[in-house]
Amino acid sequence: MKLWIKYLLGCIIGIAAAYLIPDTLMQDTHVLSVLTELALRTGRYILVPVLFFSVTVGVCYLRESRMLIKTTVSVVLITVFSTLLFTALGLASVLIVRMPRIPISVDRVSQSATLGIADLLLKLFPWSGFESLIDGVFLLPMIVFACFAGVGCSVDRNASKPTVTLFDSLASVCSIIMSFFIDLLAIGLIAISCTWALSWFQVFSSGLYNSLIILLAVNLAIIGLVLYPILVRLICKERHPYRVLYAGIAPLLTAFFSGDTNLSLAVATRPIKESLGVRRRCGNYTLPLFSIFARGGTALVTSVSFIIILRSYSSLGIAFGDILWIGGVSCFCSLFLGGLPTGGAYTALMVMCAMYGRGFEAGYLLIRPVAPIIGSFACAIDALTMLFGTFITANKLGMAERRDIHFFI
C-alpha cells in the first residue's frame, strides 16, 4: 500500500473518531493529548541524526562538485520569491473579499511575544558544536554545524575519506530507521487528526471564523493547484507538474493536520528521494533550509489575520502605507520562525500586534480560538514550498532523476 494512502486512511479514521465518539468520553482529552504528543515525538525521533549525517555528506559532495553556491542561491531566490508572492496573494484576497467582522474580545493582553532574534543568533553558535545536536526543535544550529563539517571534509578528501564514508553509512542507516517511523506515523495520524478535528468542530460550530477558513482554503488551493504547477511547467519544462503534488500528498497531510514543520520535513525526506528522484546531496541540503526559512504560508496567514483584526476593530479603510507595513512585517517575521515548528503564525501575529500598537496590542486574541486551524493552512503552504522548491532546485541543477509515477511510494 502506498504511503499516502496509509496517511489518508489514518486521517479519515481520526476525523471519524472525533465525530463518532460521544462528547462524554471526549471531556477528558488527557489521553488523546498524550497519544498526539507521542505521535509527534515518534515522527521526529530520528530526524536530527538523519539531517546531521546527510547534510554533512551532501555539503561535502556539493562543494566538491562546485554546486554548493548555486544550490544555496537557488534556495534563497525561491524563499524570497515565494514569501513575497504569497504575502501579496494573501493581502489581495483579504482586501478584495469583504470579510465579516469578529466580535471584539474584552480580554486583556495575557502574554507578550517577541521574535527573540538575538537569542536565535546566539543559538547558532552554542558554547559547543555538539550542543546543536541536542535541540530537536530549532534545527538551524545543527544545520550550520553540519555545513561546517561538510566543508571541512571537502577541503582534504584524502584525509576525510574515512569520515565521509562513515557519515554516508550512518546517514543510510538512519534513513532506514526513519522509514520505519514514517510508516508508523500513519497510525499516529489517527490521534493527530482526531485532535485537529475536535478543534475544527468547535470553531465551525461558532460560525465566526468560517469565512476566514474558506479564504485560507482558497489561497491554499490556488498555490498548490495553480501557482506552483505553472512555475514548475515554466521553469522546469515539466509536462506533468502535478506529479510533484502527487508525490507530496503524505507530507502535505502531515503538515496540515499536525501544523508541525519539522514533522512534515521528516516525512518529506522519503518521497523527495524515492518518488521524485532528487539526489540525496541536493534534497538533504535544501529540504531543511526551505523548512526553516521558506515560511511564505505563515506570512500569508499572518497578513490575512491581521487585516481581519483591523477591520474588526474599525470600519475605516486601511491606508496603503499600512498595507505595505503589514506585508513587510509579515515577510520579516516569517524569516525568524525557525525555532517555532508549531504555532509560528499565531506568534508572528502577536508580534505584529505589539509592533503596530495604536490600541491593537490585544488584537491577536480575536484569532486565538482558531489559532490551530490557521496554523494548519500556514504549515501546508510552507510544505508546498519545501517540496516544489526542492524539486525546482534539483531539476534546474541537474540533480534529479525522473521516476515513473507508478513507482511512487
Main beta-sheet annotation: none
Rg (CA only): 21 Å
> What class would the helix/strand composition place it in?
mainly alpha
Elements, N to C (H/E): HHHHHHHHHHHHHHHHH
List segments where confidence is low: pLDDT < 50 over at least 5 consecutive residues.
Answer: none
Taking the alpha carbons of the first and last residues, their distance comes to 8 Å
Shape: globular
Helical content class: over 70%
Q: Averaging pLDDT over every residue, what do you get?
A: 88
Proportion of strand residues: under 5%
> How many separate helices?
17
Count of distinct strands: 0
Overview in brief:
It is built from 17 helices and no strands. It has helices spanning 3-20, 23-26, 30-43, 47-64, 68-96, 117-124, 140-155, 157-206, 210-236, 242-247, 249-258, 261-274, 280-293, 296-313, 320-334, 344-356, 371-396.
Structural notes for this entry:
The protein has helices at 3-20, 23-26, 30-43, 47-64, 68-96, 117-124, 140-155, 157-206, 210-236, 242-247, 249-258, 261-274, 280-293, 296-313, 320-334, 344-356, 371-396. The N and C termini lie close together (8 Å). 73% of the residues lie in helices and 0% in strands. It has 409 residues and is mainly alpha-helical. The protein has 17 helices and no strands.
